[in-house]
Amino acid sequence: MATARSCCHGGEGRERREEIGSIVRSLGRFPTEAELHELLAKVEEEEPTGYIPLEKFLPVMTKVLLDRSYRPIPEDVLLHAFEALDENKCGYITKEELVKYLTEEGEPFTQEEMEDMLSTALDPETNTVRYRDYISMMIVDESQDLPL
């Protein structure tokens, strides 16, 4: 798996623990935070060091890819979720509303996750997220196999 090796920040043969979620998502898999914690528990050393050894991570990630685990949320479910937040049914959500919902409700986003999302989703002229456009940008075509 060249992707994991090419982004290795932890030194020879290991990756920083906090980078594992980004690696998994870059490979087209989208675990929840709870699922990511379960995955990390499988690959972490008994005495946590903050790094994940690639010899433990690669077999687990290979199984995730082959089993097609952690599929993305379907487009219609995403649309329904955004529409539920859009009380005025106007096709967009303000930055303030989105930040409130995603940092105070359910499984809250971190500040970094919120900034990443807004950098892609936010229309800087209107300070809103036109969620249909944003969903179109997020959709992953699962019919395209990733190279292993």
How is this structure best described in words?
The structure is a single chain. The chain is mainly alpha-helical and 148 residues long. Helices cover 52% and strands 7% of the residues. The chain has helices spanning 2-6, 20-26, 33-43, 54-67, 75-85, 95-104, 111-121, 131-138; strands at 14-16, 51-53, 93-94, 128-129. It has a two-stranded antiparallel ribbon with strand order 1-2. Strands 3-4 form a two-stranded antiparallel sheet. The protein is elongated and about 50 Å long.
Short description:
The protein has 148 residues and is mainly alpha-helical.
Please report the total strand number as a whole number: 4
Number of helical segments? 8
* Alpha-beta content class: mainly alpha
Q: Please compute the radius of gyration using only Cα atoms.
A: 17 Å
Beta-strand percentage range: 5-15%
Order of helices and strands: HEHHEHHEHHEH
Q: Look at the structure and give the mean pLDDT.
A: 84
User: Helix amount, in percent?
Assistant: 40-55%
Distance from N terminus to C terminus (CA atoms, Å) equals: 6 Å
User: Low-confidence stretches at least 5 residues in length (pLDDT < 50)?
Assistant: 1-9
Indicate the topology:
Blueprint: H1 2-6, E1 14-16, H2 20-26, H3 33-43, E2 51-53, H4 54-67, H5 75-85, E3 93-94, H6 95-104, H7 111-121, E4 128-129, H8 131-138
Helix pairs in contact: 5-8
Key phrases:
148 residues; two-stranded antiparallel ribbon; 8 helices; mainly alpha; elongated; disordered N terminus
